[in-house]
Amino acid sequence: MTTTARIQKLREALAECNIEGLITSRRENVSYFTHLSMEAILLITSSRCFVITPLMYEEEAELLDTSWELITAKHTLIEEAGQIMGQLPITVWGYEPEHLSHAAWEKLQKSSNSTLKPVSAIVDSLRARKEPQELKLLQKARSISIAALGHIE
After folding, report:
1. Residue stretches of the chain with pLDDT short of 70
2. Which residues pair with 53 in a beta bridge?
3. What is the pTM of this model?
4. Residue 87: how many CA atoms within 13 Å on its side-chain side?
5. d(C-alpha 28, C-alpha 98), whole Å
6. How would you classify the pairing of strands 21-24 and 68-72?
7. Per-residue pLDDT tens digits for 72-115
């Protein structure tokens, strides 16, 4: 499934929960939506997608497709995210409470002037449904593992 299709499924799930945008920094989620493995915060709304990343990942982030707006953080990632959130006309943001500290939550709440609503496992439920190409890769990895273990005595 393409990044665009994954984001569309997320947008549909958010709309069902009356949430206008999502903030996530969980590395697995960043990889799921961008196909890149890097430290970043993603802000996804009904019409825009932001990747906020430290300077050291700027070159890798330039590999993103054009649906992403790349922001290289001038401050901390949380401060940068809060500034962007505060500029957008979003009143309710979803966040993953298992992956956001209370201190970060307070900074975002203050700078965004929005309601932050916990949405545990919303992205996990999307990631749990494996796509055909993911299943093929899992089967290939299984075969490689079995073959490798077959050589161990």
Report:
1. 1, 127-128, 130-132, 134-135, 138, 153
2. 72
3. 0.82
4. 9
5. 13
6. unpaired
7. 999 899 999 999 999 999 999 999 998 889 999 999 988 888 89
Query: Which residues share a beta bridge with 93?
Result: 21, 116
For residue 50, what are the β-bridge partners? Answer: 43, 69
In angstroms, the CA 75 to CA 83 distance is 10
Percent helix, strand and coil across the chain, each to the nearest 5 = 50, 20, 30
The predicted pLDDT at position 61 comes to 79
- Residue 67 CA to residue 14 CA, distance in Å, equals 19
Helix H or strand E encompassing 132: helix 132-150
Helices (H), 22-131: 27-34, 58-61, 77-87, 102-112, 122-128
Residue 92: predicted pLDDT: 95
Q: Which two tokens stand for residue 127?
A: 């990631």
At 69 the three-state DSSP class reads strand
The Cβ of residue 141 has, within 10 Å, a number of other Cβ atoms equal to 10
DSSP 46: S
Reduced to 3 states (helix: H, G, I; strand: E, B; else coil), residue 42 is strand
Half-sphere exposure of 127 (CA within 13 A, CB side): 14
